[in-house]
Amino acid sequence: MPQAFVQRHVGIDSHDIQHMLGTVGRAALDALIDEAVPESVRERRLLELPGAQDELRVQQRLRQIAAHNKPHIQMIGLGYYDTVTPAVLRRNMLESPSWYTAYTPYQPEISQGRLEALLNFQTCIEELTVLSVAGASLLDEATAVTEAILLMRRANKKCASTTVLVDADCLPQTLAVVNGRASSAAFDVVVADLETEWPSGEFFGVVLQAPGASGRVRDNGPLIAKAKAGGAMVTVAADLLSLTVLVPPGEQGADIAVGSAQRFGVPLFFGGPHAAYIAVRNGLERMLPGRLVGVSKDAEGAPAYRLALQTREQHIRRDKATSNICTAQALLANVAAMYAVYHGPEGLRAIAERVHQHAVSLATRLASAGFAIRHAQFFDTILVQVDGTAIDIVSRAAESGINLRLVDADHVAVACDEVTTSEIIDTVVSAFAATDASVREVSFSLPRSVMRTSEYLQHPVFHSHRSETAMLRYLRMLSDKDLALDRTMIPLGSCTMKLNSAIEMEPISWPEFASIHPLAPPDQVVGYRQLINDLETWLAEITGYDRVSLQPNAGSQGELAGLQAIRAYHQSRGDNERDVCLIPKSAHGTNAASAVLAGMRVVVVDTAPDGNIDVADLRKKVAAAPERIAAIMLTYPSTHGVYEPAVGTVCELVHSVGGQVYIDGANLNALVGLARPGRFGGDVSHLNLHKTFCIPHGGGGPGVGPVAVREHLAPYLPGDPQSQDSDEPAPVSAANFGSAGILPITWAYIALMGGDGLVHATQTAVLAANYIARSLDPHFSVLYAGPTGLVAHECIIDLRDATKRSGITAEDVAKRLIDYGFHAPTLAFPVGGTLMIEPTESESLAEIDRFINTMIAIRKEIDQVEAGVWPLESSPLRQAPHTALQVTADNWDMPYSRRIAAYPSSAQYGSKYWPPVRRIDGVHGDRNLVCSCPPPEAFMTAQPELVTTQESFS
User: Fold this and answer.
1) Among candidate residues 462, 698, 416, 651, the one with its CA nearest the CA of residue 544
2) 3-class SS at 73?
3) Total-model pTM
4) Which string of b and e fits 655-694 if b means at least 16 CB within 10 Å?
5) Locate the Glycine cleavage system P-protein N-terminal domain: which residues (predicted)?
6) Span 560-581, pLDDT tens digits
């Protein structure tokens, strides 16, 4: 019975395996693996993991774990608030595979639905903050503030200072992350209570919190003006819901606004995943970190969405990148966007006013009973002075099922939110042992100077989907525009788009996981801690490392955490001069950027003709300055899709001069159960749970990037962002356990598969890649292979020769795959003019064969162009993708038929995917940057005139 899930997760059965082995020319699966994986790294020990369990038992066990969590009423605040996820959004977006299995929209023609949703998010942020351009989400508020600080330092050309001034009333996790990044990012931090003092000196930037962590609301206009007069730029970390009633940062003169969109319908999730936001004034849009959705046009001139300014992305710019954001929180940003669409401006304001009135009611009753309210102006959070009774009050509230914030022995903070009711306020008042007998007359109101008067969310999209029927249809319409894993194989190399099983996904919506505040008392999160401890133990066993931290909430953050651990380790030994990070050209694209952002200097190591690291060049680079070598960052198997046999030599060479070995876990799907990086030379690795361990990509996030280390680096793993211990290592994320809310997915996957199942998954992933490589080899050149002629779990198809002969590019092939109903492989990475293909273990033989047959058919189409049968510009490859509107038009002047255009394969006859737009002009979108929802008439005027005469139907 336990093996049943393994058979559901792995798409090929024993009969398929024999057929595929025959094609590859190997007798047995074990023999294939033994040939592919070098003996120097190969392990044959069994993984010491619990045995595989069936779906019912795993779900029962997760129910038992969840039962140890206590989802109290959460009134702790500090950037995390309970909210109501509308059921229509939870069921049809958050829990829908058409949304959560989608990949980052690098192929925009098949991503128009999620791009429109993200554009809604950007428009919502722009209008609430009153700033010109917003990004498509960042990882969390604390790291978003850090990104804003780095942006201010880059953009402020008038100020030579390297110091940023941060208000002491910022969220404590923000202060912790900012201080932790300051050293490696080469800026200094001055923290001061700007309500009472303004330190002397020059600052390139100032960071304010609105409302403050204490709940205080103030008019930030004078502080912003003072900062500007001193030559500083200003970032305001603003609560998004409050901006419906309070003056927005843009109207007060701020340059940048950042914050969290969590309270727009995204569950607490014990700290994440939550979408952060960033918005900037005019002139800063091309410096924005992270992803940006823009409006361009397609080949017909119709409006079309795409990721704008993609060349800013971390994996493209490598060591020139200015941001550590490679992943975003697209799925959660889309939930927040649709929350705004569903409620509209009136609904959001009503929620905000209700939240504020509850806070006013509580403050009034407590003040009437004699308690001092520290701030007369607040939005949702009040700070109450209680003179030594704070612990008793918080304890009484917890006994009644309500969590309040213990600030210190003399102060308690209470945060109201969307789920607060009058009955809850009554219970809180009782916890304070307050009577309703008035000791003194008191009232609280916000002055006009801080109240918003401007309109917001005026675009029709925020007024058109009020009913559940309308919202349901809008979500369906958007998802129908996209290609996600629920429709087709996504053969993206290095991205591992495998099955995200429904049984793994289901628990994340349970209240015992979804409704837990990250600062809830330890006795309320026993279940979460058990699940986290299990995962840390299991991942350490799988990787061969000694310790694991689950805090990094993206692969990029995991890289940064690992490199910061290396840096701190060297500094603890007095090796402050070690600042060189060696990075092979075959390493993952984010590595170089992370090294620079960790304060290291990148030295690139060449690739040998066989695709492996050029060991001779490595020796030369090491010998040039051995005392400066801090680390080498390897990706294993490399992004060339090869198990490099010399990896042991590479590790030994770096270790011999005192350097550390970082092994990127992006391709761990080719190692699980076969080799352990912590045992064949690695000192540290980050893992991508959204790749190897089944957390879905969600259209570009959420991700989880745990960092695993050997024992000597363990003291330098990320620290708790709420810790008061100055000796604790710096955190890299706002929440101690990062995106804890989606960890049940990985826990369930490992429990369902067991050690044997995980090994089988790895073996079949390697078999599938070699089957594709061998099947396509007569038609396309496979760029790299190991010494035995085998690839790892992915292969690179080289189209450069075909391009020289025919003019057809790898991009043309990627777009033509859309007509066949496929998402394209990874385009032009790591080698330009190529496609990197990774089938994973989850695809069936039928789907793999359909992809192979499609690529062979496209090869024949390229031959037609090369032979002159089809002119290049009017070939189906250059014209791809073809829309329904195009092939049903009255005029058709292409040298190929409409059927070839739209139905090139008979496999599509019963399930045709129609792209909503033709090929998109990326250059136009970048030159004419539009990053908010276009007016409806833009779509009306762009459509071809419809002929409605009787003759048109004859």
Assistant:
1) 651
2) strand
3) 0.96
4) eeeebbbbbbbbbbbbbbbbbbbbebbbbbbbbbbbbbbb
5) 7-432, 454-719
6) 999 999 999 999 999 999 999 9
Q: Positive or negative CA dihedral for 131, 134, 138, 143?
A: negative
Tell me 93's DSSP state: I
Rg over CA atoms, the chain? 28
Residue 734 burial class via C-beta count within 10 angstroms: exposed 0-12, middle 13-18, buried 19 and up: buried
Q: Which helix (H) or strand (E) holds 133?
A: strand 133-134
CATH topology of domain 761-892: Aspartate Aminotransferase, domain 1 (3.90.1150)
Q: Contact at 8 Å (CB) between 589 and 310?
A: no
Asked whether residue 941 carries a pLDDT value surpassing 80, the answer given is no
Residue 556 phi/psi, 5-degree rounding, is: -60, -40
The CATH-assigned architecture of domain 3-67+525-754 is 3-Layer(aba) Sandwich (3.40)
Residue 686: φ, ψ to 5°: -105, 150
φ and ψ at residue 636, rounded to 5 degrees = -135, 125
pLDDT tens track for 209-224: 999 999 999 999 999 9
Sign of CA dihedral 718, 494, 670, 603: negative
Domain ranges of the chain: 3-67+525-754, 761-892
| Burial profile 194-206: b = 16 or more Cβ within 10 angstroms, e = fewer | beeebeeeebbbb
Bridge partners, 412 (sequence order) = 384, 406
Tokens of 826: 């990874």
Examine the pLDDT at 948 and tell me if it is beyond 70: no
Nearest to 477 by CA among 766, 98, 839: 98
Give the residue among 332, 277, 318 at the shortest CA–CA distance from 695: 332
The larger pLDDT score, comparing residue 598 to residue 764, is at 764
Could you check whether 3-67+525-754 and 761-892 share the same CATH topology? no
* Token digits of residue 140: 């969390």
